[in-house]
Amino acid sequence: MVKKISGVPPRTTGINSVTGSADVGKVAPTQGQTGVQGVRRPTRPMTVEERKFLLKVVSEEAEKLTAEGALPADKRQVVEDAVKMTIGAAGGSEDQEE
Predict the structure, then answer these.
(1) What is this structure's pTM?
(2) If 80 and its partner were Cys, which of 5, 62, 87, 96 is the partner (CB 3.0–4.6 Å)?
(3) Which phi-psi region, left, alpha or beta, contains residue 84 (left: φ > 0; alpha: ψ -120 to 50)?
């Protein structure tokens, strides 16, 4: 149910003047940019050996988390695969996977 609001809203006194700040004059205008800025590119592609090592480390860490009880055993494979897919998406082609 909607509550009906009755009565007259309070009146404001209005603004007679606005005072400026002395720092406003120091702001420089913006400059136009072309293209996409801020997209991080890898400094060099990951080698096949580095990629295999990294994926091995991901599996080992997932195993440690499961053994410590920090990661439920039924969720281990899902999390491990998600991390590996993220590495794959950031690192290159799929033909280099295990």
Answers:
(1) 0.48
(2) 62
(3) alpha
